[in-house]
Amino acid sequence: MSRCTILHLVAVLSALYCSSSSAQEPDPEGDEGPPTRWTPWQPPPPSMVQVDDDEPAPAPAPAPRGGGRSVTRVTVGGAARSLYDVGFWGAHLGVAWGGEGPRGAWYFTVDGFGGATDQRLATGHLQLGFLGEGIFGRFRIGAGQRNGLFMVRRATDGSAMLVLTFGPRLTASYDLATVGKTTVLVGADAGVDLVLVAASAMLEGNVYLGFRF
Amino acid sequence: MNRMRFLRRFGLALGAFLALTAENLSIDQDELQCEQAVAYLASCCPGFDNAGINCTAGGCVRPDLDLPTSKCLQSLSCDQVVARGLCNLGQREAAAKQSGDGDGDDDDRVPDVDVCQ
């Protein structure tokens, strides 16, 4: 084999090697370039995926039962308590979390009362409980139970007299207006508490303006 | 998870609070009306000294102001309270305790005749 023939063979092999390498490297510019002999495997487009007729289609997500949704309710208003013929007057703040459907609602409730007696003994009442409501158009009637800690500040030494309260409650409210997902309401509730330890029941009542969202 | 942890801690704190205060978890009618009467005296008498008056009830100890006395005090006008010399009730009560046995029973109480008769 002559020297010229060997050089020619090397040139041909170099040209073949270069064209093969450029076909395997991805083109960073995204240009398709000239057609090559080899292309990497790609999955077929979705329209070409074979569908197995025996496999059932996935079921749609279940709709919320009865159209229920979670609800938060915040109420603010005036409140009164009565124990041993002593009146306690003040403000009420209530927060409730729960759920509601088209015909009813339920809540976990936290109620706070801050006020004073007619002789200005500071008073507080913190209550935890639950409440169920029936929905009748804009009206809601409810019943529930509350457990609380009632406190009266002494005039003599400033310490607190404390009692535990347990009792049922009845509520009624009326939806004034609804804007978006927020409803403005007015309402009232009343309850009778068993007081531990006191030789008397405690009467309580609240009237409030509130929001439900 | 965080909510459960919060509820557990809240429950423990509430339980501890109730356990520590269980002894005082009561309100007696005499006690409440006594505190009401003291508050009323304080509102009528500037600088009212209530240090000598005990309104705590428990066991054998009764409030210094019994129920009729407390209610009677609150039925008086402030002018009547001042005119009857009730603004120094605290000092009088402290003096009575010093002369009595000071155990908080009936012989340490403010006599009704001093207040409403």
Task: Describe this protein's structure.
The complex is a heterodimer of chains A (213) and B (117). With 213 residues, chain A is mainly β. Chain A is built from 1 helix and 8 strands; from the N terminus they run H-E-E-E-E-E-E-E-E. Chain A is 10% helix and 56% strand. In chain A, strands 1-2-3-4-5-6-7-8 form an 8-stranded antiparallel β-barrel. In chain A, a hairpin with a 3-residue loop joins strand 2 and strand 3. With 117 residues, chain B is an all-alpha fold. Chain B has one domain. Classes of the chains: A mainly beta (213), B mainly alpha (117). Chains A and B meet through strand 6 of A and helix 2 of B.
Q: What is the N-to-C order of secondary-structure elements of chain B (H for helix, E for strand)?
A: HHHHHH
Rg of chain B from C-alpha positions?
Answer: 19 Å
**What CATH architecture label of one domain in chain A applies?**
Beta Barrel
Number of strand segments of chain B? 0
Unreliable runs of chain A: 18-33
Number of helices of chain A: 1
How many separate domains of chain B?
1
Oligomeric state of the chains in view: heterodimer
> What's the β-strand tally of chain A?
8
The end-to-end distance of chain B, rounded to whole angstroms, is 66 Å
Globular, elongated, flat, extended or rod-shaped: what is the shape of chain B?
A: elongated
Q: Biggest sheet of chain B: strands, sense, closure?
A: none
Biggest interface, residues from each chain:
A-B, 23 and 25 residues
Secondary-structure-based class of chain B equals mainly alpha
Helix content of chain B: 55-70%
Poorly predicted tracts of residues of chain B: none
The first-level CATH class name of one domain in chain A: Mainly Beta
Distance between the termini of chain A: 94 Å
